[in-house]
Amino acid sequence: MKKWKRSARLVDMTRQLLDQPHRLISLSAFADRYQAAKSSISEDLAIIHETFREEGTGLLETVSGAAGGVRYLPIANRENATKLSRQLCAQLENPDRILPGGYLYLSDLLGDDRLVREIGRIWATVFSGRGADVVVTVETKGIPLAYATASHLGLPVAIVRRDSRITEGSVVTINTVSGSSKRLGSLSLARRSFPEGARVLIVDDFMKAGGTVQGMIDLMGEFRAEVIGIGIMAESQVDERLVENTVSLATVTDVDVKNRKIAVELGNLFTQGGFFDGTNPD
Length: 282
Fold this sequence. Notes:
Blueprint: H1 6-19, H2 27-34, H3 38-55, E1 58-63, E2 69-74, H4 78-92, H5 107-110, H6 113-127, E3 134-138, H7 143-153, E4 157-160, E5 171-177, E6 184-190, E7 199-207, H8 211-222, E8 226-236, E9 247-256, E10 261-266, H9 268-271
Parallel strand pairs: 3-4, 3-7, 7-8, 8-9
Antiparallel strand pairs: 1-2, 5-6, 9-10
């Protein structure tokens, strides 16, 4: 078995940690792979941890004991999260996003891999301490955000459909009512998506009054699942909302279709305290 140079070892260790967030890797596994002493591995991990911390991209958590090891926890610090959200707000204020009916075009943002990946890191930071078992979203635009979040948490994704499909097998379907237009609809989820009683994190791209999100919450009740958090990329400021306790990166306060103006401000992630330590604000 080859002897690894330290520079190559550091690169490979970093890659393994980044590829397996929240997975505990023993020091013995690293020592066997690189044919190195555990003391050398510990020194390497200290270097990687310090680099992650300085760059604000995460940290390494050490677990002691015979079954211990180290795991990588993706972390977005407040400074980086605020910077990204301000950029998101600026992009949302582009009047070219206004569609008929006052809707906003978001597909380009959700197709931006860097933006979506960093939003996923923020949600992984905010909700990491709540013990989620699965990330849930509704088709279709919320899917990239859900997968980005799940990749940072090391979790599976379950996709709620607006129409059931034969390839989903047995499904649970509920009727929903849009919070703004009062339009009737339905949401379906395959029974095999996750075990009954799971703890779920809901992620979505945009929320107006919250009819769709409330529908997902109701659907989770059919699985006896516990919703441990709701992350929304951008939400509208409305007088009556169906859902509270959401966490948003941006808030659209006004869409003036006639004058082609959009007003956007930072979401409640930054206007209320407590989110970055994984707890709800008081």
